[in-house]
Write a structure and sequence with these properties.
mainly alpha, 4 helices
Length: 139
């Protein structure tokens, strides 16, 4: 099967491929090889299409996005990280707090969910109001 892309579509595809490959491989010591292979295939196709955003390293025999394009994608990744951090933090804290108080309760699953949601909402409210200002870690 052959898929044809316009230059504009290919510009978007390389950005999506970079974002996906970065998401999958950045937290790993060993990259997922099959992802790297398809990523290289996409970059090679874009390079052969004449996209200026791609550079080829003869010594490594690899294709790379130019730094300004990588920076663009990494900015999106930072936005995503910030979003997921603020979405996840109240949930994790609420689950922790519930675990600390569950010996005082005998909740069914629905009551457990409602209590965790209640705690989570209080954290969300606090973080929206003060961010990290009142967050303290006790040792």
């Amino acid at each position: 099967m052959k898929v044809n892309f316009t230059k504009k579509q290919m510009q978007q595809l390389i950005r999506i491929a970079e974002a996906g490959n970065w998401l999958a491989n950045s937290p790993r010591d060993e990259a997922i090889e099959s992802y790297d292979e398809i990523y290289q295939y996409i970059l090679e196709s874009a390079y052969k299409m004449g996209l200026e955003e791609i550079q080829y390293d003869k010594l490594l025999d690899l294709y790379f996005l130019k730094p300004e394009v990588e920076d663009e994608i990494h900015q999106l990744a930072e936005e995503y990280d910030s979003y997921t951090f603020w979405e996840t933090l109240p949930i994790k804290l609420a689950e922790r707090d519930y675990e600390r108080e569950k010996h005082l309760r005998n909740d069914d699953p629905e009551s457990r969910f409602l209590r965790i949601t209640e705690i989570e909402e209080s954290y969300i409210e606090e973080f929206m109001e003060d961010g990290f200002e009142k967050l303290v870690i006790k040792k």
